[in-house]
Amino acid sequence: MKRRCFVEKAGCGLVGMAVGAPLLAGSGQQQATPAATPEKPRRYKIEIEIVEARPDSWCHKKGDKFAYPADMGKICPWLLGSMHDFIILLQKGVTLPWKYKNTPYEKVIDPQGVTTEFVRCPDPTSDLVARITRTCQP
To answer: Whole-model pTM above 0.90?
Structure first.
């Protein structure tokens, strides 16, 4: 027996609904549901700027700018590793709620436009901080 048939016959509640086969109570027939129109995913532009760096830093200087994903090979692997999860979340439209009010890292949070996130490099000698900026594209 195929998995879908098993789930439909077993009436496994949420599992049955997850595979798109909810049962009508007592009828044994599938309920027809209209297909929902999927929401068009938003597109975002991701830019990275170094906002803090020691003057003698070996990898980046304050003011360096990078486009994602085009310039990823130009970013220090330690910093890139720190930014990776933030970039993925921002690309998927996630907005992290903390704002760091009254600090130099106070964020801009605008789900309809520009959102920023700050990330520090884990290299203890670098004092490197990057600002990731997500801009909603039309």
So the answer is: no
